[in-house]
Design a protein that fits this description.
Blueprint: E1 2-4, E2 11-13, H1 26-32, E3 37-40, E4 43-46, H2 56-60, E5 72-73, H3 89-108
Antiparallel strand pairs: 1-2, 3-4, 4-5
């Protein structure tokens, strides 16, 4: 998100990590966390978080939501579904066993 600082009015960017448990559209999921989002053309504007919501303390007191520069969502990222990283240990172990097998013949040979 991008919003002006409450004290200095300098526009700052902040990353918010949300793990939604509810189903529905993106705006519904943000609404469940107390972040009210409004569409204005090609921008997604944020309204001040309500008291008692998870982001009230961190965002409500730090950023100016009612100034000349609106608070807005700049970028959204979604975690990709991918294989666990531990799966890549299997080819590495097979390669290691192959190298050990090839080098074991050198151990049985007499030194020159």
């Amino acid at each position: 998100m991008s919003a002006p600082d409450f004290d200095t009015a300098i526009v700052k960017e902040k990353t918010i990590v949300i793990t939604p448990e509810t189903e529905g559209s993106g705006i519904d999921r943000l609404d469940a966390f107390g972040l009210t989002v409004m569409e204005d053309g090609d921008m997604l504007l944020l309204d001040e978080p309500f008291p008692g919501t998870p982001f009230f303390e961190s965002l409500g007191n730090e950023y100016d939501f009612y100034g000349d520069v609106p608070a807005q969502i700049v970028m959204a990222q979604i975690e990709n579904d991918r294989m666990p990283k531990e799966v890549f240990f299997i080819p590495a172990l097979l390669l290691l066993l192959m190298i050990v097998g090839l080098q074991s013949r050198r151990m049985t040979q007499a030194p020159f």
